Fold this protein.
Amino acid sequence: MAELIRSFVVPAGQSDRLDKFLVERLPDLSRSRIQGLIKDGHVKVGDDQILKTGHIVEAGDEIFIEIPEALPSALIPEDIPLDIIYENDDLVIVNKPAGMVVHPGAGHYSGTLVHAALAAIPDLEGIGGEERPGIVHRLDKETSGLILLAKNEKTHRWLQDQFRDRTIKKVYLALVDGKPPTPVGRVEAEIARDPSHRKQMAVVSAGRGRTAVTEYKTLEQFERHTLIEVHPLTGRTHQIRLHLAFLGCPIVGDTIYGRKAPTIELNRHFLHAAKISVRFPGEKEPCTFEAPLPAELQTVLDNLRGK
């Protein structure tokens, strides 16, 4: 049963693509969601059902769009404890533990953050026509820390726009082997799929990958290690791990891009998403949230400090 039917009349003097026209009038829905509704037969122009997203609508055309209720997710909710540090009607901020995969995929069909969120967040409105949380950014399996989940399509779009415009600020803490070449610096090195290892990424020469920018500063220097604060300005897969390895100071415990034999006994890599600043819908100033270092990482630092 349809949840909502909306209608619009194309203003005088206007001519546009059907999907573009609807995107401008339905800010709660993403462009891909609207295109899916058109292709699935939920849009009419007058009495005619239109299946082409690029159909041109003209002045005076009356457009009807049927927005179905979100369908239950095909995923089975799992009662996995989540450290929810903030929640409102639109989003949830979770402190993800190391070892948890964010999204279901090949080899990870259960136990993910999405499975846990389906059970922990009862008021999910759904994304893309399905009752599921909106994932707008990810953390690697062994990276702990803060991650945003959208409860509805409008917030999902809002967060996507902020990530695209680079107005969401993220701060990571990383312990690296050795030390970076300068106490404060910036890495601009393109990233692409590693042609030799398809499950891995690699730093590549200019023009062969996607732009990736990371800034960092040294917080504390030890005899053989350095604690640094990292600010990724882009969000490429494995970006921080690759850029620090590129500098010659790979993350402790990163056996993929760093040393195969870890220099400190740790069953994960030492990378933690410690802080995130995000602006909520209707607010002018961003809110900042923080997650303390997990106990196993704090213990490593305490040992290095001789405590």
Notes: The two ends are 63 Å apart (CA to CA).
